[in-house]
Specification:
single chain; binds flavin-adenine dinucleotide; D-Amino Acid Oxidase, Chain A, domain 2; Rossmann fold; alpha/beta
Length: 311
C-alpha cells in the first residue's frame, strides 16, 4: 500500500486464541522478508498481542495501535479451549492453506506448553466429547492427520467406561487458556518490553499510511472487514452462559451444540454458533436451552455408577 507493507493476520474463526502464536510466526516471517525493523501491530486481541510479542522476541521495534484494549476485545469472551475449531470452509481448502494451518497449529501448540501455569492462566484438562451418533474420525479428528498427536490421552470410551448419557464418548486432553488472565499477562509483558501502545481507531485503510512504521501487521479481527473492505469476512455469533466457579470440576465436556469449560473465573457453558449474525445481545431462549440441556446431562450422569476416566 503506497510503499508500506501490510501483513494480514485476521480471520481465525473459532480458534483465534488457539492459533494466535502460530499465525504470529507466519506473520513474522512475512515481516522479515521486507528487511525493515520497525513494525506497527494494529489490534490487541489474542492475535495482535502474540504477534507483537513474537516480533519483539525476534528483535523488531514494535508499536501497537488499537481501538480497544483487553478486557474489551472479542478474545476476552472466548471459551479458551486450545483446539483449532471452525477455521476454514472445507470446500475452499487448498494444499497451501492446509500446510500453513498445520504449521500454525503446531507452532502454537508448542508455545502454549511453555506458558502452562497460573501466571498466564493456561492448564491441561481432559475433554470428553460425546454424542448419540458415531463421533467424527475424519478431518481434525483423523488418526493420520497432523492434529491427532496434539491431542494426548486420546481414547474412545465404551459405555461401561464412562458416565455420560450418550452412546459414544471419547477423551482427549487439551490446554485451556483463561482469556482474562492470559490477555492481561500478555499486555503486561508487552508494556514491560517497552512497546508503546496507542489507543486509536482507524476508520479506513488509508489512515494507516500516516503511521511512521513502514510495515503494518493487521490484527483487527472482524474490524478488518470495514477497514479493508473484505467481503468474505463474516461474523459468527457465540453466546456464553457463566456459572459460579467450582474448583472440583476438572474436565471439559462437548456434546452436540453444547460445551462446558471449567475456568477459575466461572464454569463456561456454550453451544451457539450463528453465522452472519452481528447482533451482540444475549438470546434468552438460547440461554435457557444451554442451561437445560447441560442440566440434563449432569443430572443423568449423577445417576450412572462409573466416573469418567482421569476426571
Ligand atoms: C463465544 C466464543 C467462544 C470462543 N471460544 C474459543 C475457544 O475456545 N478457543 C479459541 O481459540 N477461540 C475461541 N473463540 C474465537 C476467538 O474469540 C477469536 O478467534 C479471537 O478472539 C480473534 O482474536 P483477534 O485478536 O483476531 O480479534 P479480537 O479479539 O476481536 O481483537 C481485534 C483487535 O483489533 C482492534 N481493532 C478492530 N478494528 C480496529 C480498527 N478499525 N482500528 C483499530 N483497532 C481495531 C480491536 O479493538 C481489538 O483490539 C471464541 C469466540 C467466541 C465468540
Amino acid at each position: 500500500m503506497d510503499g508500506k507493507t501490510v501483513v494480514h493476520n485476521y480471520g481465525h474463526g473459532g480458534a483465534g486464541i488457539t492459533l494466535s502464536w502460530g499465525t504470529a510466526h507466519l506473520a513474522a516471517l512475512e515481516v522479515q522478508k521486507t528487511g525493515q525493523r520497525e513494525v506497527a501491530v494494529v489490534g490487541s486481541g489474542a492475535v495482535g498481542l502474540a504477534a507483537a510479542r513474537l516480533l519483539v522476541e525476534r528483535g523488531f521495534r514494535v508499536s501497537m495501535y488499537t481501538r480497544d484494549l483487553p478486557p474489551n476485545t472479542t478474545s476476552n469472551i472466548a471459551g479458551g479451549q486450545w483446539f483449532p475449531f471452525t477455521v476454514y470452509d472445507v470446500d475452499h481448502l487448498t494444499p497451501t492453506f492446509e500446510e500453513q494451518f498445520s504449521d500454525a497449529t503446531e507452532f502454537s501448540y508448542k508455545r502454549y506448553q511453555t506458558m502452562v501455569g497460573d501466571y498466564y492462566g493456561v492448564r491441561w484438562l481432559p475433554n470428553f466429547q460425546m454424542a448419540d451418533t458415531p463421533l467424527p474420525t475424519n478431518g481434525l479428528m483423523s488418526r493420520t492427520g497432523p492434529l491427532f498427536r496434539m491431542l494426548p490421552q486420546f481414547e474412545e470410551l465404551v459405555p461401561s467406561r464412562h458416565p455420560f448419557p450418550f452412546r459414544y464418548a471419547r477423551r482427549f486432553d487439551t490446554m485451556f487458556i483463561q482469556p482474562p488472565i492470559y490477555l492481561d499477562a500478555m499486555l503486561r509483558e508487552l508494556r514491560i518490553s517497552g512497546v508503546p501502545i496507542q489507543v486509536r481507531e482507524f476508520r479506513e485503510a488509508r489512515e494507516l499510511l500516516a503511521l511512521p512504521e513502514p510495515v503494518i501487521v493487521n490484527c483487527t479481527g472482524l474490524g478488518a472487514k470495514g477497514l479493508f473492505g473484505d467481503d468474505e469476512l463474516i461474523p459468527i455469533k457465540g453466546q456464553l452462559t457463566i456459572l459460579l466457579p467450582e474448583e472440583e470440576v476438572t474436565y471439559a465436556t462437548m456434546a452436540p451444540e453444547l460445551y462446558m469449560f471449567p475456568r477459575r473465573d466461572g464454569i463456561v457453558l456454550g453451544g451457539t454458533h450463528e453465522r452472519g449474525v452481528w447482533d451482540l445481545s444475549p438470546d434468552s431462549d438460547e440461554e435457557a436451552r444451554i442451561l437445560k440441556q447441560h442440566s440434563d446431562i449432569f443430572r443423568r450422569m449423577g445417576t450412572r455408577p462409573a466416573k469418567p476416566a482421569g476426571a
